Amino acid sequence: MRLLDRLERKFRPYAIPNLTIVIIIGQVLTYVLSRSNPQIIDRMELVPTLVKEGEFWRLFSFCFVPPPINLIFFIIGIVLFRLMGSALEQTLGTVRYNIYLLTGYFATVAVAFVYPDQIASNIFVVTSVYLAFAWLFPDFVLQIMFILPVKVRWIALFMWIGIGYSLIKGDMATRLVALAGITNFLLFFGPEVIQRLRSKGRRIQQKAQVSADARKPRHKCVVCGTTDKSDPTLEFRYCSKCEGAFCYCENHLHDHEHFSNTDA
Fold first, then answer.
1. What pTM was computed for the model?
2. pLDDT per position as a tens digit, 217-256
3. Which CATH number goes with the domain that contains 157?
4. I need a labelling partner for 233 at 20 to 30 A (CA). Which of 86, 150, 163, 240 fits?
């Protein structure tokens, strides 16, 4: 977190409060204007080749391009983004939330210039915000279609599966876009994820060890090998005449050859 601490100090004077609202206003205005003039979307999308030709506004305007969905789903998406983005800003702080989105922005722009003829998506805005929200508030419940309650952790799990599939099966362009969408999440929460996984792994090992110890017999007859696990009805004792901790079942406690140090 030392890098984030340095970035936070340097970026503090330039941080934009309520950045979620700014993005929402930009996307709503674009959505409304595009209903009467669809070409406005084409003028705002990030196409590096056109940026190189002088259309520099595309480096910023693509962040306000709304997703290609109908009005109902757009409104639902805006409401969720408002909820999750505001929660992240309150949790991380205004400066770090700005840095979080800015990191995703720079990663996306960098990937876009690797394939300059393709249109770059602003999916990092939705993906990274949702994944961060699900990590910080895993038990938050969403009402799918206003009926089915689902915790955000499970939806995030499906998103991670989709990202993993893209990284494994996708072409290089798809892989880079997927990485750009989660770069800020990995930067902010990667160390915590690794630490939690290690801690969980240790707990699983401890539970396995406790379970294995519970299955081990406490007593074993040195004569016949019977244990308190193989025959719980037997009683076991240690012989006071034997020199050492030699255990015997009740059948051999009084019928065995005594051990002494000279036998060793």
1. 0.73
2. 777 877 787 787 777 777 777 777 777 777 877 777 777 7
3. 1.20.1540.10
4. 240
